[in-house]
Amino acid sequence: MYDIIVIGAGISGASFAYKISKFAKVLLIEAQDYDNQIPVRTNIYAEHNKPFIEPQFWNDVQIFPRKFIQLNYKSEKYDGLLDSKEFGAPLGKICHTELFLNKYITMFRENGGETRFNKSVSKVNRHQDFIEIITNKGESFQSKLLILATGSRGFQLQKSLGFETPDSFKGIYLNTWADEDLLDHNFSFQYMFHLNPNISMNGPFFFNIGKGRLSTGYLGNLESPSELKNKLQRILQNYKKIQGFINGISWDLNKAIVGDISKHPIKNMSKDRVLILGEAAGLVTSFFYEGMLCGLASAELASKTIQPLLNNGSDFSESDLQTFDREISKLLLEKYFRNGNACEYLFYETNANTSKAIWNAYTDMLLKNKTVRQYVYDVLLIQDLTNYNTENDRWVGEKLFGNLPILSKATLWPRFLKAMSF
């Protein structure tokens, strides 16, 4: 009998397992064979992730080998650059995420935690005073509390336990290796977020630049895996807007990973003896698709919710666990997610020409208006998301509307007015 079983060893599952293993007997299960290899990932960790990461991890130069100095919100017309040197401290750090996960898992094991990798969970049985899980290999494990941190890969289990599932989309990700001098020559920035409706009407095309590595990809529409790979290949070979960045860099499309990406939070993330964390709960920002922050934050809040319950001999009833839902709402949903929801409505839920016009106007404004750059900088560095300033977003939205072409203003003012109400 374990105190807690965690299904999923991504960023939310691994960080939660490490944090709570200081106080409980924990089993961590992952369907992928992490003992053999954790998939390579290069991610951007803005400074607002820092409160949820222990200093021994944040200060590890193997895990976080580069500072996040400059970003590029790129449109078809402009490179909307934000350079942290204009305001002071770096925007954050670049993470080699497989090393981050490996460190979490190593420290988790040192705390006495147990792992079962290359095993998936096929069934969950509820009993009066415990949860039983059955693996695909017929093994049975019992626990007082179950944590689902399965990203977009465990929706069948979620549904079987009576939970909603978030909206899910297909995305493609590709990592490659490159000489650091070449990367420094080609890229002044470490992160590029590019909207082009001809690539996707659901999300961005991106570059994340690590140390000796580079990742790219995009959030797709309704394409099949083969269609996603074919489109990515055409983009990398023919899309003129990015050729200067990737000149001299080679890609192996056979290593591209296609998977589901979810967003839009579910209403209830807790039930008797069960909590859902991170992307599995739809805790991904709807415009920027920032899941690392939400995964880390939900792991932190879950740990803080559960620790006193362990000490008090709780039966982990829904009423006890609902503290987690309230804290998630307070930290992420009430303020921080509102900006992403409004941006999603403005940029994605429209036609291609409108999307282009608004994004072009925004990137132009970012280049020309220091206050806009300051407000974006502040968002990336904020340490307490409960104090997120939604009035700054409103101000930027008003300026953005003013920056639109005259003909666009005539047709788009109702859309902007509605976005202001998010």
Describe this structure in words.
The protein is globular and about 65 Å long. The protein is an alpha/beta fold and 422 residues long. Strand 9 and strand 10 (131-135) form a beta hairpin. The model has no long low-confidence stretch (mean pLDDT 96). Strands 1, 2, 8, 9, 10, 11, 17 and 18 form an 8-stranded mixed β-sheet that branches. Strands 6-5-13-14-15-12-16 form a 7-stranded mixed β-sheet, with helices on both faces. The N and C termini lie far apart (45 Å). The chain contains 14 helices and 18 strands. It folds into 3 domains: 2-57 and 96-166 and 264-333, 3-Layer(bba) Sandwich (FAD/NAD(P)-binding domain), CATH 3.50.50.60; 168-261; 350-419, no CATH class.
CATH class of the largest domain equals: Alpha Beta
User: How many β-strand runs?
Assistant: 18
Low-confidence stretches: none
Q: Globular, elongated, flat, extended or rod-shaped: what is the shape? A: globular
| Cα gyration radius (Å) | 22 Å
Strand content: 15-25%
Biggest sheet features:
8 strands, mixed
Number of helices: 14
Helix content: 25-40%
CATH architecture annotation name of the largest domain: 3-Layer(bba) Sandwich
Mean pLDDT: 96
Do you know the CATH topology of the largest domain? FAD/NAD(P)-binding domain
CATH superfamily of the largest domain: FAD/NAD(P)-binding domain
End-to-end separation in angstroms reads 45 Å
Given the helix and strand composition, which structural class is it?
alpha/beta
Q: What's the domain count?
A: 3
